[in-house]
Structures are given as structure tokens and as C-alpha cells.
Amino acid sequence: MSIQQIDVKYTAVATAENGRDGRVATDDGKLDVVVNPPKEMGGSGAGTNPEQLFAAGYSACFQGALGVVARKENADISGSTVTAKVGIGSTEAGGFGLEVAIVASIPNVDAATAQSLIEKAHQVCPYSNATRGNIKVELAVA
Length: 142
Hints:
By secondary structure, the protein is an alpha+beta fold. The chain has 2 domains: 1-48, N-terminal domain of TfIIb (Single Sheet), CATH 2.20.25.10; 49-141, GMP Synthetase, Chain A, domain 3, CATH 3.30.300. The protein contains 3 helices and 6 strands, in the order E-E-E-H-E-E-H-H-E. The chain has a 3-stranded antiparallel β-sheet with strand order 1-2-3, with no helix packed on it. Strand 4 (81-90) and strand 5 form a beta hairpin.
């Protein structure tokens, strides 16, 4: 597989201190949060964690991609939501890996149209393009 080439329009910059048990902030100060491992992984769970941040970014990005697709298809996605569930766990090789479940609720279209829209959005979304072939990503209509 070849590496995708892009014409960069924007670069986000974030810096972490103390890894999964510290702080992460963007260079513009718009995001500055404490991160802690979740209780399920032996942490305090007091702050957010990288998986929550990834889920937030993926769901927002996927919703945007859904909008792009819907405009092209003249589909009404008003009132729609996209939820990303990001799981983390041990891999067979001994490291850690992620998996994602994307669940979209699109109340103003039928189930078949909703399924078609999310499959097309999955081809447009930069997060989907970045994860494709690397981790398990499941798509579902709520």
C-alpha cells in the first residue's frame, strides 16, 4: 500500500506531558486537558484519556464527512448524530491496539439510505482513511 499524499491546508499541534497520566494541550491554547488512564486500565479515571479524545475527533470528523456526502446526494441529515466508540486492549503481539464502532442516527432518511450514506462517508472521512486496513472499524445505523 502506498502512502497517501495530500495538499495540507491546516496542521493541528498538540503536546503531551507525562504520557497517559499527565496533560495534553494544543499550541493555540484551545484545548488543555488532564489525561489519566481509565479505572478499567488501572488509572484514576480523573481526567479524559486518549481514547476519548480520539472518539471525539473521529465522531466530529465522520459527521462532517456525512454532511459532504449528504449534500452531494441531496439527503436530509438534519438532526443526525454520529457516535464513535473507541476500544483499547492488548494485541496478540503483546502491545496495545484500538478498535472503533461508528453508530450514526439519521432520522430523516430510511435505513437503506442511512446505510449508504455512512458507507460513503467512511470513504471520505480522514479518520476513516487513516485507520483503514490498520484497525477494525464497524459501521452501524442506529
